[in-house]
Design brief:
There is one protein chain. It contains 3 helices and 38 strands. By secondary structure, the protein is mostly beta strands. The strands form 6 sheets. Strands 3-2-4-7-10-13-18-21-24-27-30 form an 11-stranded parallel beta sheet. The protein folds into 2 domains: 269 residues, no CATH class; 129 residues. A hairpin with a 4-residue loop joins strand 31 and strand 32.
Length: 454
């Protein structure tokens, strides 16, 4: 397998430059630019539709995005959000999508969907991308002797407009809340993902979804240990697509009390109605959770993997396990570059499409993969010889071709762009890779001046 690298050169923003449309968050208020906020919610409240919020390392409270498409991004895994992230009331847009990227989110305790999930997407129109995130469900507290109930990692609630609401998840780990307590009973794990309604479209790429673990019971009164949570719970969702994304039920809890029942493992997936369309590629295995054990040694087995009301989901080989697109940030003293890599096989032809908004998969248009990008702003293409590494970057280093995303950058504001690679193999088959998002940083004042003199 060859690796073809595309390095779109991006100039970094200067310290202290006021950037309209780019907001910064640092819990120590030592932001690299202005305006600077101490909490993510403050930045969200101040932002306008289409703005980008860049979050520095730290720990933050949950936040709510209401009625405006935003990008909330961290470039590393050191941003931890304690509390639910809610995105609701988004309108459809031909030019904007919402991005959550690089966040670790731990749901809070609460009694409603909007306060106990790790992420709750409620009644939106348009497309949302969650990328490079770790999402844990919260807990619903209950009175003793009952344990808290685990709640979903990700909740997606119907928008009411058929086919309008697309949620794409890339390179994430999502699990339901786990009770984790011993001196209580019946603390079931939460669902990894629960999606409701008849208009929601959900696509998973290289994401692991798991139900929460049931609690271990140590109360000597015959009460039950907690059951594992469901991996994916569809409550009439319009369609589910999974590419390279295993889905597992959570394990049941042990019962350390004499003769008390152990907790059953959670089902891998449950479909409440027969209206949903499930398509899972060969790398998206669905498995049930393992039951716990009783005090005297008797243990349960695995729970069923799938419980649909009708037929099993459609499975197919998408080719995405062999062909993927990757991005990473290369930080330097005076510049921040994005490296974009596409893994391919000898004889493949690579085209990378860049768009301003995120589409939703169309498996019928590309049966060995998916077509997802919105209207293309730029296309970078190459026909490699299967031996050399192609580097598209105009910096004088190993450049066999040159290209730049500079024409897509804007003065005074960061913009989010979505990338997807189309790979045509030697036999002529087309493979569309998973999408990736990058944030293009603003043009600097001296760059604009130079352009004006040309």
């Amino acid at each position: 397998m060859e690796l073809f690298n595309v390095h779109p050169a991006l100039l970094a923003l200067s310290l202290g430059l006021v950037q309209g449309g780019t907001l910064y968050v640092d819990d120590q208020l030592t932001c690299p630019g202005q305006p600077c906020y101490g909490t993510i919610q403050e930045a969200v409240d101040a932002a306008s539709a289409g703005d980008t919020i860049l979050v520095e390392d730290g720990e933050y409270s949950g936040f709510t995005i209401q009625g405006k498409h935003l990008s909330v991004q961290s470039d590393n895994a050191m941003v931890v959000v304690h509390g639910t992230v809610v995105v609701s009331g988004l309108s459809g847009s031909a030019t904007l999508s919402t991005l959550l990227s690089g966040l670790t989110i731990i749901g809070s305790e609460g009694f409603t969907a909007s306060t106990h999930s790790g992420v709750c997407l409620d009644g939106n129109d348009g497309n949302i991308l969650i990328q490079d995130c770790v999402i844990h469900g919260g807990l619903e507290p209950r009175d003793a002797p009952l344990c808290p109930l685990g709640r979903p990692g990700l909740t997606v609630i119907d928008s009411g407009i058929p086919g309008s609401y697309g949620v794409t998840v890339v390179d994430c780990f999502i699990n339901g809340g786990s009770s984790g307590e011993a001196e209580c009973a019946d603390g079931d794990g939460g669902e990894g993902i629960v999606a409701s309604g008849f208009t929601t479209q959900l696509a998973l790429y290289d994401t692991f979804v798991e139900g929460g673990v049931g609690n271990t019971n140590s109360i000597a009164d015959g009460t039950t240990a907690g059951e594992g949570g469901i991996g994916l719970h569809s409550q009439g969702v319009w369609s589910v697509l999974a590419f390279g994304s295993p889905i597992a039920g959570g394990d049941g809890g042990n019962n350390n009390a004499s003769y008390g029942p152990y907790g059953f493992g959670g089902p891998g997936a449950i479909e409440d109605t027969s209206s949903a369309t499930f398509q899972l590629d060969s790398a998206s295995e669905v498995t049930g959770g393992l039951a716990g054990c009783q005090a005297y040694g008797r243990c349960g087995g695995f729970r069923w993997a799938w419980l649909p009301p009708s037929a099993l989901p459609l499975t197919f080989d998408s080719g995405l396990d062999r062909r993927r697109i990757f991005t990473r940030t290369l930080a330097g003293a005076h510049q921040a570059d994005f490296e974009v890599s596409v893994s391919t096989e000898v004889g493949d032809r690579v085209e990378i499409f860049v768009s301003s908004t995120l589409g939703f998969p169309d498996v019928t248009a590309a049966p060995r993969g998916i077509r997802q990008v919105g209207e293309s702003l730029m296309k970078l293409s190459a026909e490699p010889d299967g031996k050399s590494v192609l580097k598209i970057r105009n910096n004088g280093e190993h450049a066999t071709q040159t290209a730049s995303l500079a024409p897509l950058r804007e003065p005074g504001r960061a913009v989010t762009r979505f990338m997807q690679a189309k790979v045509t193999d030697a036999r002529g088959y087309v493979h569309w890779t998973r999408p990736r998002a990058v944030v293009l940083l603003p043009k600097l004042a001296h760059e604009i001046a130079v352009e004006g003199r040309r």
